[in-house]
């Protein structure tokens, strides 16, 4: 029996939830879904330049799980960009944490 997914902590929601190639109608495009935990992993690794250990701790998951999520996110982003597919950001086993100001 497979182990159940733990909720991953996500602290930043995307400002935009959909990307697509310009000048191609949406109905002609194949769509890829990037889950919110994958979005958070890309943000931590590529924009915030966090080490995998620190990023994993921030998401309350193991470093190995973070690496797997990051690899999946990179594959999906590359597929969307290289093959001209639409990218939808939504869902996944996450708990959205609001930051206090």
What can you see in these coordinates?
The chain has 101 residues and is of the alpha/beta class. The chain has one domain (8-96): Arc Repressor Mutant, subunit A (Orthogonal Bundle). It has three helices and five strands, in the order E-E-E-H-H-H-E-E. The chain has helices at residues 36-47, 52-59, 63-83, and strands spanning 8-10, 18-19, 31-34, 86-89, 94-96. The strands form two sheets. It has a three-stranded mixed sheet with strand order 2-4-3. A two-stranded parallel ribbon has the order 1-5. Helix 1 (36-47) packs antiparallel against helix 2, helix 1 (36-47) packs across helix 3 and helix 2 crosses helix 3 (63-83). The radius of gyration is 14 Å and the shape is globular. The chain starts with 7 loop residues before the first strand and ends in a 5-residue tail after the last strand.
Describe the structure concisely.
By secondary structure, the chain is an alpha/beta fold. The protein has helices at 36-47, 52-59, 63-83, and strands at residues 8-10, 18-19, 31-34, 86-89, 94-96.
- CATH architect. name: Orthogonal Bundle
Major β-sheet strand ordering: 2-4-3
The CATH class name reads Mainly Alpha
Using only C-alpha atoms, the radius of gyration works out to 14 Å
Structural class by sheet pairing and helices = alpha/beta
From the 3D structure, determine the CATH topology: Arc Repressor Mutant, subunit A
pLDDT under 50 segments (min length 5)?
none
Give the end-to-end Cα distance, rounded to a whole number of Å.
42 Å
* Number of DSSP helical runs: 3
Number of individual domains: 1
H-E order? EEEHHHEE
Largest sheet: 3 strands, mixed
Q: What share of the residues lie within helices?
A: 40-55%
| Mean of residue pLDDT values | 90
Name the beta content range. 15-25%
- Shape verdict: globular
- Number of DSSP E strands: 5
């Amino acid at each position: 029996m497979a182990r159940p997914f733990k909720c991953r902590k996500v602290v930043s929601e995307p400002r935009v939830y959909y990307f697509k190639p310009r000048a191609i109608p949406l109905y002609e495009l194949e769509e890829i879904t990037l889950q919110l935990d994958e979005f958070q992993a890309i943000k931590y690794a590529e924009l915030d330049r966090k080490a995998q250990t620190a990023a994993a701790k921030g998401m309350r998951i193991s470093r190995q799980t973070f690496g797997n999520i990051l690899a999946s996110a990179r594959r999906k982003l590359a597929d969307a960009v290289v093959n001209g597919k639409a990218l939808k950001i939504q869902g996944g086993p996450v708990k959205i944490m609001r930051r206090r100001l």
